[in-house]
Specification:
The complex is a heterotrimer.
Chain A: E1 6-9, H1 13-24, E2 29-32, H2 46-51, H3 53-59, H4 66-76, E3 79-81, E4 84-90, E5 94-99, E6 105-108, E7 112-115, E8 119-121, E9 134-136, H5 137-147, E10 149-151, E11 154-160, H6 162-173, E12 177-183, H7 191-197, H8 204-216, E13 222-223, E14 227-232, E15 239-243, E16 249-252, E17 255-260, E18 262-264, H9 267-271, E19 276-279, E20 284-287, E21 300-302, H10 312-330, H11 337-360, E22 375-377, E23 382-383, H12 384-392, H13 398-405, H14 418-427, E24 444-445
Parallel strand pairs in A: 1-2, 1-7, 2-3, 7-21, 9-17, 11-12, 11-17, 12-13
Antiparallel strand pairs in A: 4-5, 5-6, 8-18, 14-15, 15-16, 19-20, 22-23
Chain B: E1 4-6, E2 12-17, E3 20-25, H1 30-36, E4 65-68, E5 71-75, E6 86-89
Chain C: E1 4-10, H1 14-25, E2 30-33, E3 49-50, H2 60-84, E4 95-100, H3 101-117, E5 124-128, H4 129-135, E6 143-149, E7 153-154, H5 157-168, E8 172-173, E9 177-183, E10 186-191, E11 194-203, H6 209-213, E12 223-232, E13 242-243, E14 246-248, E15 254-256, H7 271-284, E16 292-303, E17 310-313, E18 320-324, H8 332-344, H9 348-351, H10 358-361
Parallel strand pairs in C: 1-2, 1-11, 2-8, 4-13, 11-18
Antiparallel strand pairs in C: 3-7, 4-6, 5-6, 9-10, 10-11, 12-15, 12-16, 14-15, 17-18
Helix pairs in contact in C: 1-5, 1-8, 2-5, 2-8
């Protein structure tokens, strides 16, 4: 197989939109995605959801545009490779991926590389957060999308942000036994803000319903001023205890869904050595790109939530913008300047609404409920006390903390722990820095390496 | 141990988990199929003993590692179930 | 900052911290300067061998030094563990260098014969495939034989480094030394946080040593040599002996090495090297084919032109020393003992005449 012109990592809204543009312009385009079907997180199991009325009536509005985006990329001639994990990459560009379907490691050296790897939820850490039964609200939504599955037993949600409200409404519609919401935000948004929210999420009506649900306190009690949360149980979650404006509480529950917003996935962009900045307000690393998503002068572009959180609709627009920029770079005669401008203007219009979301739900200090016994590094079982001690003993950055404590040495390579580790450093007056990301981005078997080409 | 219930019937498949049959649906990930049945114990605890269990169901938290069809250390949330699939929980070492 | 100290050590890696440990135990007043960067450079990428066999070809002084350090390691381990509560996880497990196939084995046999002819490596013996498999049942069918030395072993390089730094405690200043200026009666270290005076200064700054030492007449002509390493997840214990490029750590992870690349100051990794290391490791230990590789990294060895350590003492500026090597773990014990003693007594060049920097240029420092 000859080398593709464009390799895109991620088949969510941004990756699919870019693929449709580059492939239509005649650039051979390969899209690698780690799930077994395209759509990314928001359009997960798109086909199954569409065909199942029980799921589509709860989830369906989020999937508007899913089929069109998937079909457009394929119709334009983009080649989609599912169940492929990016393992290694350089800005040459060159990439190595594991094909979990067909097996083996594969390599490519395209002319342009687009990373559209999306976002993940922030870690919400507190005593007992490693107990089975504590999950991200995103995971509960995945259970709904992927399996039409609803948790059995009492459910409590904790945190803040649009996804929390959306999942609250979806679980309520699915008949989950919702017992309480522990709100991180000081006060729920006023009615005026609701109007602006309509422009933000893919399912604004449902979000509004969630807001009204919570505001009206019709079925689900809301606790504010939540602090000192503990998840308790023997081998799994049995109840939670916490302080709140309404006094100390204990709620028996089998499931605790947590959420405090999402942050860009930067494993791949940092592996490539691309520059990033620390966004103080968003408490996360964000890659530095120009307005078309290009990382400086490199042949590497970044689009979608992975270049900065903007939500699904904005991700699709940024994917288009980046796709046009790649075409202009690789095949200028095929560049459709008018379409690029249209996408750019639509993206500009969508921007302010995102800023509003950031204002309404600034992420909480991730250490607010963490005591010295709380696990920070789930992979290696490293507790906050050990991390704090290492920083106090002079570890000046996350890599030195890693050497001293093993925090960050596990397979997740900081995906879970890095925001917590960064905050420990910030509290000690140091800069948060960044873990040095090394391949493989996800573990592979030693025997897999034998399938790589033997030439240098 | 409470798990999940289904909103609608789906296409059933049967996996073998540690030698015991376990029902799942086409479209489930292996991790979700186990969670639905109230099973969290398919991943060895972290060093130091804190439990490991699925947190994210999307390949980020590494709390769902299992040996699937002979391949160790698979993120069970990233593997779609298949009829006849053989799943072994990780137990002791290799995490 | 201002201040002074009897001895200032520039560099808080395995070499500098081990020297500090030894000098402090002798009662010397020691300050260690470690640049405020985000990496430990060579000391954080080490494989962890305490390796005797094969060392000293055409360099008996190096062979002697290495054997001395290996003999000191058990006591060094205990001292460090007692002083800090951190376990350096040293095991005198013996060491194997394994040959795959006839050609490798023949070359290994010849090399050992030459060493023995020089009266070197007398503690290393050839070992046949059968004897090897009795020692290490997990070895694969392609293993043709190897060399064995009972004095070899391995340790946890990060634990050793952390322990040494904890032992150094408040003596460590986190700032970069930009240059060292000779003064009457000593030296002034110009640091990023102001000047610091010392009667004596030891440069143990890895690849940064030459820049600091050259004005003082100390130059080891150091160059980086990259080594890449793979590490697995935790596995059930199956290997206690240190096999030159495969060893199982005290956590149960397996480290697999290594490469020797001339790529400048590039600590990156290559898929090519991963494949080469993986293929060889699987040929040695077939069960490793199913091991999960969790990380790959590159680190830069600190290499003098002949690969031997450099123990330099400036003639022009008495009291200035340069100490560098690429076997920071193996030599940590002797650095904390004999080498520290020699520095304390001002007789480093007399103690290791064959390992001074003048051997590299023919010119006295």
């Amino acid at each position: 197989m000859s080398e593709p012109d464009v390799a895109i990592v991620g088949a969510g809204p941004a990756g699919l939109a870019a693929a449709a543009v580059t492939a239509a312009a005649g650039l051979s385009t390969v899209v690698l995605d780690d799930q077994d079907a395209p759509g990314g997180q928001i359009w997960r199991a798109a086909g199954a959801v569409r065909q199942d009325r029980a799921r589509s009536r709860i989830l369906g509005r989020s999937y508007a545009g899913a089929q069109a985006a998937i079909k457009a990329a394929a119709a334009a001639g983009a080649v989609l490779r599912s169940s492929c994990d990016l393992i290694d990459a350089t800005p040459a560009p060159a990439l190595v991926w594991l094909d979990r379907g067909a097996g083996g490691l594969h390599e490519a050296a395209p002319r342009a590389l687009l990373l559209a790897t999306g976002a993940r939820e922030r870690p919400v850490a507190f005593p007992g957060w490693t107990l089975p039964g504590v999950m991200n609200v995103g995971a509960m939504q995945i259970a709904l999308k992927q399996g039409g599955a609803v948790p059995v037993g009492p459910v409590v949600l904790m945190g803040q942000g649009p996804l929390l409200l959306l999942v609250l409404a979806q679980l309520a519609k699915a008949g989950a036994d919702l017992r309480a919401v522990l709100a991180f935000d000081d006060a729920f948004p006023r009615a005026g803000a609701v109007q602006l929210l309509r422009a933000v999420r893919g399912d604004p009506a449902l979000v509004a319903e969630g807001l009204r649900l919570v505001l009206a306190r019709r079925r689900v009690p809301v606790f504010r001023g939540v602090r000192s949360v503990r998840a308790l149980g023997e081998s799994r979650l049995a109840h939670i205890a916490f302080d709140s404006d309404a006094g100390p509480q204990e709620i028996a529950c089998d499931w605790l869904g947590v959420h405090d917003g999402v942050i860009p996935n930067t494993q791949a962009t940092r592996l490539l050595g691309l520059p990033h900045r620390w966004d103080t307000a968003q408490r996360c690393l964000v890659p530095e790109v120009d307005e078309t998503g290009r990382a400086g002068d490199t042949p590497v572009w970044i689009a979608g939530d992975g270049s900065g959180i903007g939500g699904a609709r904005l991700a699709g627009l940024r994917g288009q913008i980046t796709g046009h920029a790649i075409v202009r770079a690789l095949r200028p005669d095929a560049h459709d300047a008018a379409a690029a401008r249209t996408a750019q203007m639509a993206a500009w219009r969508a921007g302010p609404a995102r800023a509003l979301v950031n204002t309404l739900w600034p992420p909480r200090d991730p250490l607010a409920m963490v005591d010295n016994d709380t696990v920070i590094c789930r992979c290696e079982g490293v507790r906050a006390g050990a991390v704090r001690a290492a920083v106090a003993a002079g570890a000046t950055g996350p890599n030195r903390v890693k050497v001293a404590t093993r925090c960050g040495m596990g397979p997740c390579q900081g995906r879970m722990c890095e925001p917590l580790l960064a905050q420990v450093l910030i509290r000690a007056g140091a800069t948060p820095g960044a873990l040095r990301i090394r391949p493989p981005l996800k573990p592979v078997l030693l025997g897999d390496y034998e399938t790589l080409g033997a030439t240098e | 141990m409470s798990g999940f219930r289904r909103l609608s019937p789906g296409a059933p498949v049967t996996m073998t988990v540690d030698g015991v049959p376990l029902d799942a649906r086409i479209g489930d990930s292996v991790a979700l199929a186990l969670l639905v049945q109230g099973r969290f114990d398919f991943c060895a605890p972290a060093p130091g003993g804190s439990p490991r269990a699925p947190l994210c169901l999307m390949g980020v938290c590494f709390g769902c590692l299992a040996r699937i069809d002979g391949r160790p250390g698979e993120q069970a949330c990233m593997v779609p179930v298949r009829d006849g699939m053989v799943v072994e929980t990780e137990g002791r070492a290799d995490v | 900052m201002s201040g002074g100290s009897d001895i200032a050590i520039v560099g808080g890696g395995l070499v500098g911290a081990a020297l500090a440990f030894g000098l402090a135990r002798r009662g010397a007043e020691v300050t260690v300067f470690d640049a405020d960067g985000d990496d430990f450079h060579a000391s954080a990428g080490n494989f962890g061998l305490v390796w005797v066999q094969g060392k000293g070809m055409n360099a008996p002084a190096y062979g002697d030094l290495t054997r001395r350090s290996a003999a000191l390691w058990p006591g060094f381990h205990d001292m460090l563990a007692d002083a800090t509560g951190i376990d350096p996880a040293y095991r005198r497990s013996g060491g194997l260098k394994i040959s795959l196939g006839e050609a490798e084995y023949a070359a290994q046999r010849d090399t050992l014969a030459r060493l023995h002819n020089q009266r070197a490596a007398l503690d290393t013996e050839l070992i046949s495939a059968d004897a090897l498999r009795a020692l290490v049942p997990a070895l694969g069918p392609e293993v043709r034989g190897g060399t064995w030395c009972a004095d070899d072993g391995h340790a946890d390089p990060l634990a050793t480094l952390i322990a040494l730094r904890r032992a150094a405690g408040a003596r460590v200043r986190r700032c970069r030394v930009q240059r060292i200026a000779p003064q009457t009666g000593g030296f002034t270290l110009h640091t990023a946080e102001g000047p610091f005076d010392a009667t004596r200064v030891v440069i143990a700054a890895g690849l940064g040593s030459d820049a600091l030492g050259a004005p003082l007449g100390l130059n080891a002509q150091l160059r980086p040599q990259r080594g890449q390493i793979l590490i697995t997840g935790r596995m059930a214990p199956f290997l206690d002996i240190a096999c030159h490029t495969v060893r199982q750590t005290s956590q149960g992870t397996v480290m697999i090495g290594d490469t020797k690349e001339d790529v400048g100051h590039d600590r990156g990794t290559t898929p090519f090297a991963a494949r080469a290391m993986a293929v060889r490791a699987a040929r040695m230990f077939p069960q490793l084919a199913q091991a999960r590789i969790v990380r790959q990294w590159g680190a830069l060895r600190v290499m003098s032109p002949d690969g031997l350590p450099v123990y330099g003492q400036s003639n022009r500026y008495p009291g200035a020393y340069l100490v560098t090597c690429h076997s920071g773990v193996t030599l940590a014990a002797v650095h904390a003992a004999d080498v520290a003693d020699a520095i304390a007594e001002g007789r480093l060049s007399g103690a290791y005449p064959a390992l001074g920097p003048e051997r590299l240029t023919g010119v006295a420092a």
